[in-house]
Design brief:
The protein is an alpha+beta fold and 264 residues long. It is built from nine helices and six strands. Strand 3 and strand 4 form a beta hairpin.
């Protein structure tokens, strides 16, 4: 009997829209409190400063507004689960654009106010199935907004660690980010021999090998959402997370070190 086909996860578009706006609002409030000393600190992302990282965070949602202002593409080119693997080629362009944005917008409060107003206005009338000409490939608005939860959550965490802030993570945004990256692992390493648990948001099966059907799986990986996100995006190395007891892994197929990061 052939293995059951895994169903593609779906997301509630209304909740994702609310999550994107809520997390951007959280970041805006946090950036408003940053001192010049904090803004000058290294962001630990290449040669970016915290100021440049804060400016970059606006790009996560401004790209939605900008794409909604452009003509609609003729056809969808990229599925949601293909997006995590399509981002690496844009790293150079993103770095250059970020430095230019930070240089041209020394008043971060004004930048955040303008970007928040634009995204709120654009989302008020845009349908979920509207296609966006994203640089990674044309996607529906509903799918693209899920990717924005990844950008916002990952870089909010970067900002907190670099600037010593405690900007909260919207629960729905954190859940969507965690689930998308967990599902991307299952795409990269298809199979059902290993169960990856990221409570309370995601459980996926992956890695080729004997299929588990009942009882406790022979290969289990478990970690918390932020550790998983850091592993999936290269912020934390697999061995480091194991050594620091941030992740538990049991079974001969539970070593995910060769599969991570998923995004550079």
């Amino acid at each position: 009997m052939p293995p059951a086909r895994k169903r593609t996860r779906t997301y509630d578009p209304a909740k994702i829209r609310a999550a994107v706006l809520a997390q951007f609002g959280n970041v805006r409030q946090g950036v408003h409190t940053l001192t010049e000393e904090q803004l000058a600190r290294p962001a630990r992302l290449g040669d970016w400063s915290v100021r440049e990282l804060a400016a970059h965070l606006t790009m996560a949602v401004e790209t939605v507004s900008r794409n909604l202002d452009r003509p609609e593409p003729a056809a969808k080119e990229l599925a949601l689960l293909e997006w995590p693997f399509a981002t690496a080629d844009r790293a150079g362009d993103i770095a250059d654009g970020t430095r230019e944005l930070a240089h041209d917008n020394p008043d971060l409060d004004a930048l955040y106010t303008r970007v928040e107003q634009r995204i709120t206005e654009r989302l008020a009338t845009a349908p979920d199935d509207r296609l966006l000409a994203a640089r990674t490939g044309a996607m529906t608005l509903a799918d693209y907004l899920v990717t924005r939860t990844v950008e916002l959550v990952v870089h909010t965490d970067d900002l907190n660690r670099a600037a010593g802030t405690d900007i909260p993570l919207d629960r729905q945004a954190l859940a969507a980010c965690t689930r998308l990256l967990a599902d991307a692992l299952a795409v990269k390493a298809p199979g059902a021999s290993t169960e990856v648990r990221i409570p309370p948001y995601a459980v996926v099966q992956c890695v080729e090998g004997p299929r588990h059907t009942r009882g406790t799986p022979p290969n289990v990986v478990e970690t918390d959402p932020l550790t998983w996100i850091r592993l999936a995006t290269g912020r934390t190395e697999w061995k480091t997370a194991l050594d620091e007891a941030k992740v538990s892994a049991s079974g001969e197929r539970a070593d995910l070190g060769g599969l991570l990061p998923l995004m550079g």
